[in-house]
Design brief:
By secondary structure, the chain is α/β, with parallel strands linked by helices. Helices cover 33% and strands 13% of the residues. Helix 6 runs parallel beside helix 9, helix 16 runs parallel beside helix 21 and helix 19 crosses helix 20. The longest helix is centred in the middle third of the chain and has 37 residues. Bound molecules: calcium ion.
Length: 734
């Protein structure tokens, strides 16, 4: 049977404590207030009444804003489910908490705010979506959905590891279980921090039966950018795989049964898994709601009445209605919780927060999903009610981020905020009715790492201030700059507009400064180039070769190493042809790509006696990356090799010289890197070998005969490399 919630009336009464004098309020805060943190998945602010939604009503969420504060400039640090949650738990950016992309596993042994709240005397609980692969730590009570979880008849993993199946609708079950914990399972004498985390309104947007008829016969307003052509911005926008036009599945997203009848417009192959989970009566209710609409659409299609734009419009309506219906159940649940707080008398000393792990595209730019640093998915809702501290109706403009939640909760609890947390407590700002201090941040840093994955959004990062947004796309080395005041929909990048030259330079400085401040070094962060076909294919070949094992000598590096198969082919045959050697070089790779490859299959079953490593010149060539950062990337590779191939001796080459002469800036950068990495030699496992002189003329220039482009070796160059390397190989017993 489905659990059916009534629609709760909006309580207009302002809780009495708002009327209490300020002195008493602060005393109340000292008593360690409870925290109810309701958190949903993919709920964009533009689908919340209080944020000015033009497409739906959320009376219960709006009540939190009305009785407390709404933050208009609230952002995530990495717009994707798992990473956002990890940022919240740790108060750190993704590169510091180690959860860069979905599919990573959260290291639950690290410092998190729930653990520190436990230390401060709180009971902590999390019920609902977790999505961090490892089990929760730092919670007195938890009950979580496996992975993404299901809307219908969901399983919830219990603390003893068992899965318990609940019949009904996920949002309602999570609400009810959270309420049950509040009512019966906690110690009423201690403060609590309860995280009630919904799956909704995540894809595939399966609503509860009580909201099937919501928006029936109504057309929801379309966003202005529904037919965005992606001109005027990074060329990578066109590679997206998250458009309403091309990337909705017939079954999973659009809720048709059977195979796609229009595979050009509706992707085949992924059925509606929720339908399969339903009971017979749930299926009957579902079909009664969807079948007539589906039939009508198919009839119109068969009659040839719908243009391709009409089909996109139909998809938008199907999508947005389902999405909003899911949100309505979240709003119902929030209403139930607020009502319980009122009835139980807990409301006065309980802070209520509503947020969601990131925003979402509701057809803007022709998209669904998130990931991109554009406003719709960068923004997170943040509504907070704190009776006695925040006056009703605070409209806050400060730039806040999900890394601020942990520090805020800790200050609320009266606990110390660890220095390693990168976010800042919002408590002083909340006490000042949303007014930030002069030292509050004027820009946020954002980074997205999930390359070559579902939806094909490229790695990018950037900064946003109150008015401008700068994005950087490493693959194409493109900057995009948006003036959010003049172009709030981010349709034209002005990075090349001379009028914005000064602003671009200023924003680039903010970008570099913030990366330094947050200690972002991309040279050490594993990165795939799997979104580039040539790289993907070569990576696959290397992994396949390595799986054969039987290797004594491995060369690891970039195009200069890969070139052993090109201009160096004959030299390779002569020197290494019968020595069980493998080439693990890929052109264009930087340290971060080698880190990725070595931890994603490229070492296969090989256990070489010697590995020759030369990497880093592309970190120089692509970004002029700081030598200490590149050296840290090399060091990380050495650590991986030590871990995975403890018996292998490493010949660490100094990066070969490049450029016309001895004052070439990139050559100087490589020299500076070499000055650092030579110290990684330990006289036993790691041997540093600097052979740059082999390629230089006596005046420090590089002859075109040795390096035709002053970077890559000729056949003669490879001959010199092999000859210079040979004594070291002999010494190491090869
Ligand atoms: Ca999400």
């Amino acid at each position: 049977m489905l659990r059916v919630f009534a629609v709760w009336p909006v309580t207009l009464a302002v809780s009495f404590c708002l009327l209490v004098a300020q002195g008493v309020m602060l005393q109340g805060a000292e008593k360690q207030p409870n925290i109810l943190f309701v958190f949903s998945d993919d709920h964009a602010p533009q689908a919340i009444g209080a944020y000015g939604s033009k497409i739906n009503d959320t009376p219960n969420l709006d009540r939190i804003a009305r009785e407390g504060a709404i933050f208009q400039n609230s952002f995530c640090a990495n717009s994707i489910c798992g990473p956002s949650r990890a940022c919240i738990l740790t108060g750190k950016h993704s590169h510091k908490n180690g959860f860069l992309r979905n599919g990573n596993r959260f290291d639950g042994t690290q410092m998190t705010f729930p653990k520190l709240m436990q230390d401060a005397g709180y009971q902590t609980a999390i019920i609902g979506k977790w999505h961090l692969s490892s089990n929760p730590t730092g919670f007195n009570h938890w009950e979580i959905l496996p992975g993404q979880g299901s809307y219908y008849n969901p399983d919830l993993i219990q603390m003893n590891g068992e899965r318990k199946r609940y019949e009904g609708y996920c949002t309602d079950i999570i609400t009810e279980n959270a309420l049950n914990w509040l009512k019966d399972k906690r110690d009423p004498d201690r403060p609590f921090m309860l995280m009630c985390q919904h799956k909704a309104p995540h894809r595939n947007w399966s609503p509860p039966p009580r909201h099937f008829s919501l928006y029936k016969g109504v057309d929801i307003a379309e966003p202005e950018t529904l037919f965005d052509d992606y001109e005027g911005r990074s060329k990578l926008l066109k590679e997206n795989e998250m458009s309403l036009k091309d990337h909705f599945f017939w079954g999973h997203d659009m809720k048709f049964h059977g195979d796609s009848q229009y595979p050009d417009q509706f992707r085949p192959g992924l059925a509606n898994g929720e339908y399969r989970r339903m009971t017979d009566s749930q299926k009957a209710a579902w079909d009664a709601a969807y079948q007539p609409e589906n039939d009508k659409f198919l009839q119109q299609m068969k009659a040839g009445k719908l243009s391709s734009k009409d089909v996109i419009r139909w998809k938008y309506q199907r999508y947005i209605k389902d999405y909003l219906r899911c949100i309505q159940a979240v709003d119902d649940g929030v209403g139930a919780m607020l009502e319980y707080l009122d009835e139980s008398g807990l409301a006065n000393n309980t802070i209520v927060i509503y947020s969601s792990d990131q925003g979402f595209y509701l057809g803007e730019h022709g998209w669904y999903d998130k990931r991109w640093m554009f406003e719709e998915s960068l923004r997170m809702p943040f509504l907070i009610r704190w009776p006695g501290v925040i006056q009703p109706g605070v409209d806050a403009k400060a730039l806040i981020q999900n890394i601020d939640y942990g520090p805020t909760f800790l200050e609320i609890a009266g606990a110390e905020i660890p220095g390693e947390m990168q976010g800042r407590s919002m408590v002083p700002m909340l006490q000042a009715q949303g007014q930030p201090s002069a030292s509050w941040r004027d820009a946020i840093y954002y980074a997205y790492y999930e390359n070559a994955a579902v939806h094909n959004v490229p790695v990018h990062d950037g900064v946003r201030t109150a008015r401008y947004k700068l994005m950087f796309f490493p693959r194409t080395r493109e900057w995009n700059l948006f003036d959010l005041e003049k172009d709030p929909q981010e349709m034209v990048s002005v990075h090349a507009d001379p009028e914005y030259a000064e602003i671009l330079a200023g924003m680039q400085k903010r970008y570099r400064d913030l990366r330094q401040f947050y200690d972002v070094n991309s040279a050490v962060l594993p990165a795939t180039r799997g979104d580039e076909q040539r790289w993907r294919e070569r990576d696959r070949v290397l992994t396949r070769n390595a799986r054969q094992g039987n290797v004594d000598l491995a060369f690891i590096g970039d195009s200069i190493t890969q070139g052993w198969e090109g201009r160096g082919k004959d030299v390779w045959a002569k020197h290494y042809g019968d020595r069980k050697a493998i080439n693990l070089g890929i052109g264009g790779d930087r340290t971060e790509h080698v880190i990725w490859r070595l931890t994603h299959g490229n070492l296969g079953k090989i256990k070489p006696k010697v590995a020759v490593l030369m990497i880093g010149t592309n970190n120089t060539g692509h970004f002029d990356q700081d030598p200490s950062e590149v050296a840290a990337g090399v060091e990380r590779i050495l650590e991986i090799l030590a871990q995975r191939l403890p018996e292998t001796k490493i010949v660490l080459h100094g990066i070969f010289p490049r450029g016309a002469d001895s004052l070439d800036a990139k050559r100087l950068n490589n020299i500076a890197i070499n000055q650092i990495i030579r110290r990684y030699a330990d006289g036993d496992r790691v041997h540093y070998l600097e052979i740059g002189d082999e390629f230089l003329e006596s005046d420090g220039t590089i002859s075109r005969e040795i390096m035709p482009d002053q970077l890559h070796l000729s056949k003669q160059g490879y001959e010199r490399w092999a000859n210079a390397l040979e004594p070291k190989l002999k010494e190491l017993g090869l």
